UniProtKB/TrEMBL annotation, chains A, B:
It comes from the Bacteria. PANTHER family: LEUCINE-RESPONSIVE REGULATORY PROTEIN, TRANSCRIPTIONAL REGULATOR AZLB. Keywords: DNA-binding, Transcription, Transcription regulation. InterPro entries: ArsR-like_HTH (IPR011991), AsnC-type_HTH_dom (IPR000485), Dimeric_a/b-barrel (IPR011008), Tscrpt_reg_AsnC-like (IPR019888), Tscrpt_reg_AsnC/Lrp_C (IPR019887), Tscrpt_reg_HTH_AsnC-type_CS (IPR019885), WH-like_DNA-bd_sf (IPR036388), WH_DNA-bd_sf (IPR036390). The keyword DNA-binding applies. This is DNA-binding transcriptional regulator, Lrp family. It comes from Mesorhizobium escarrei. One of its GO terms (molecular function) is DNA binding. Signal peptide: none annotated. Pfam families: AsnC_trans_reg, HTH_AsnC-type. SMART domains: HTH_ASNC.
Length: 150, 150
DNA sequence: CTTGAAAAAAAGTGCCC
DNA sequence: GGGCACTTTTTTTCAAG
């Protein structure tokens, strides 16, 4: 992982549709050397995958919410069971167990309030062991990047 | 935006490195028709961009934290000013203004506690108008996807 | 106006130095 | 790491529905 690898990763994190020849020129390498490095980074798992990112509003899911959850009964088993349920929900795009007074944090991508309503009824009803949950609706997104700084 | 477009978007959200011929076969279209659809989705902005996702741990940033922030002085100007500062930080991967008793939520990608320490000193010191902030460190990531369900 | 087939261009791949 | 021949893929063109 030298300077050139970092540069390549930064470029690919911003735009993975660039051609190998392009990338090679940018980092000052021959196309074959450049390709070798990229393949190495992929097989080493540093590059996990290449994906298309959609415009949420244009994909019909412009609404976003952050939910903090406190469980009724704590402990590893209960946490695991709750997260298993949360993960199954398509609206849940991020699910974490966290330190502090809250047990879990969920990030939701929703179509509208109706979807939020049915989601809550499903995930936060009696049998799911949720004591309390607090919802913060996203008003403005100032930054949202998948780029990991190197 | 018919059934085939949705299928294409779902496939591309999961793996954008698939070849056009592959995608065409999957959705039952000729390569040329398939390419036309993908290009249309790109120019319409439904597909925002194609990026490489890194393995955070292998990229040296395995630590994650969620920070809720309450500002000293509220209002549009102050919120905007705070978010401008937050957005400039490379460790901040998501920054939102939200509804409820907290004003903003930040998602951080960090190398270690030292980075968190210097980050807090920089962003949450007196002059930045932050009244209170509460940090939740991510213990376990149960789900983390960029896929918007269609 | 949309579709698919085939040619042309471009990119990716593997081998040798 | 670089250069070159080979393969695959993308992209354009064009004829047909």
């Amino acid at each position: 992982m030298d300077r050139i690898d970092s540069k390549l990763l930064t470029l690919l994190q911003e735009d993975a549709s660039r051609t190998n020849a392009d990338l090679a020129a940018e980092v000052g390498l021959s196309p074959s050397s450049c390709l070798r490095r990229i393949r190495r980074l992929k097989s080493a798992g540093v590059i996990d995958r290449v994906v298309a990112l959609l415009n949420p509003a244009k994909a019909g899911r412009g609404m976003k919410a952050i939910v903090t959850v406190e469980l009724e009964r704590h402990g590893e088993q209960h946490m695991r069971r709750f997260l298993e349920l949360a993960v199954m929900e398509p609206a849940v795009i991020q699910a974490y167990s966290v330190s502090g007074s809250t047990d879990a944090v969920l990030m939701l991508r929703l179509m509208d309030m109706d979807e939020f309503d049915t989601f809550c009824e499903r995930l936060f009803r009696d049998r799911t062991n949720v004591a309390r949950y607090y919802t913060m609706f996203v008003i403005r997104t100032a930054k949202e990047t998948t780029v990991i700084p190197l």
